[in-house]
Specification:
Length: about 425
């Protein structure tokens, strides 16, 4: 940090000195500062005893804004392509974030995609590009990161998922609703674009079970679902009233070979694959041992599924979900007939998925012991209608059940072999 100096300058000086990407931030200086003063005066010290900084900065380092070097360390330097969109991903360490982040960095450039989370980032995430600690419920933290990096668009993934949210609904509502409100208000003040994923959790028992449309009854049965309905409606309000470019997809259950289950009611699918991959790995190891003439007994213990065998739900393989997300991000505004879209790929029950896995791993088996997540699953549709997404921005999925299962198991096997080396 040697050689970096702060100086306080007026808004007019900052407008002259800073890159064009930050001009919009200083145009709203007076509104930012008034909100900051009000929030700071009302804030009491937290458990850490540290007071948060004010929301708005009028200071610049050496008359230029901060940029962030790979590895998450602050440095000054070239801004690069001033026309490139800079994205901030909140919740980057989560189930979707940890795969969407490298996908977007490969597409848009590592310095143009800033990661953030309240959790510590793994080394590969720090090495891959900018990373910031960020609690989305704290508006001033969010504003600081947006200002320092010249952010143009926020991909707001930070949220508590359904199963975790039901154990602590008050916290889920606080994190999910406050985070959304902060992102949208910051977008309003600074002309930012916003993508915030929704979920099939917005649907409820009164939603049609077959081909649930984009516009239908939404009476969710979970705190997470309620927060996502709030997000959808608030985003549409900010778009209609203030012109914020808000976009959202209702994610189905996500199947990923990289991310561990994150507390959702559809996580059984990932757990099934990981159980099968473990069995395959154990059996393969034992087959190479001359003292074993038969397959390992690891294949004799079944996976215990927390849903009923016939609990059909919409699912999507992560590669399709990543493509859907970036496709909507890049879709021209004129092609969008709505702000929130259903997206679909496949619908499958636990027993159907188990049968496909068993064809690949014959010693795999499953038993069904429904818990509280069965009630959550029963409130969701079995199939959703995504025809509007397919019409408006040419959405189409690539992976069906069979090829998804084969690819998922192959990835898990490769990962297991690499760990053993």
């Amino acid at each position: 940090m040697a050689g970096l100096h702060w100086r306080v300058c007026s808004t007019a000086e900052a407008m002259t000195a800073c890159p064009p990407a930050l001009h919009r931030f200083f145009r709203s200086a007076s509104s930012f500062s008034s909100v900051a003063q009000k929030e700071t005066s009302n804030r009491v010290s937290g458990s850490s005893g540290a007071q948060s900084p004010p929301i708005h900065f009028a200071g610049q380092r050496n008359s230029r804004a901060l940029s962030t070097a790979p590895g998450g360390y602050m440095s000054t330097g070239r801004w690069g392509n001033k026309n490139a969109t800079r994205y901030l991903i909140t919740g980057a360490c989560g189930q979707v974030g940890q795969e969407l982040l490298p996908y977007m960095r490969a597409r848009f450039g590592s310095r143009n995609v800033i990661a953030s989370d309240v959790r510590s980032a793994p080394r590969h995430m720090l090495d891959g590009g900018p990373f910031n600690y960020l609690d989305v419920t704290q508006y001033d933290q969010l504003a600081r990161v947006v200002l320092e990096h010249g952010v143009d668009a926020i991909v707001h993934l930070a949220a508590m998922l359904p199963a975790a949210g039901e154990k602590s609904p008050q916290l889920a509502l606080q994190v999910n609703n406050a985070g959304t409100a902060n992102v949208l208000e910051l977008a309003r003040l600074n002309s930012l674009r916003v993508f915030c994923p929704s979920s099939i959790a917005v649907f409820g028992p009164s939603t049609p079970k077959q081909l649930a449309p984009d516009e239908t009854a939404m009476r969710p049965s979970t705190a997470y679902g309620i927060s996502k309905v709030h997000m959808e409606l608030l985003g549409e309000y900010y778009h209609r009233k203030f012109g914020v470019d808000f976009r959202s997809l209702r994610y189905p259950g996500v199947i990923s070979s990289e991310a561990m289950p994150g507390g959702g009611a559809t996580d059984y699918a990932v757990e099934m694959f990981r159980h099968a991959a473990h069995i395959h790995s154990t059996n393969s190891t034992n087959k190479t041992d001359s003292t074993h003439n038969t397959a390992s007994t690891a294949g004799t213990y079944p996976y215990r599924c927390f849903l009923r065998a016939d609990a059909t739900l919409p699912m999507m393989y992560m590669p399709d979900l990543l493509r859907a997300t970036v496709s909507l991000l890049e879709a021209p505004s004129r092609s969008l007939s709505r702000r929130t879209y259903n997206v679909a790929a496949l619908s499958v029950s636990p027993s159907e998925l188990a049968a496909v896995i068993k064809r690949e791993v014959p010693t795999f088996d499953a038993v069904y012991e429904p818990d509280f997540r069965q009630q959550i699953a029963e409130s969701w549709p079995q199939h959703v209608d995504d025809s509007i997404a397919r019409r408006d921005w040419n959405w189409t999925h690539e992976f069906g059940l069979e090829d998804m299962a084969q690819d998922m198991l192959a990835r898990l096997r490769d990962s297991s072999q690499q760990r053993r080396r």
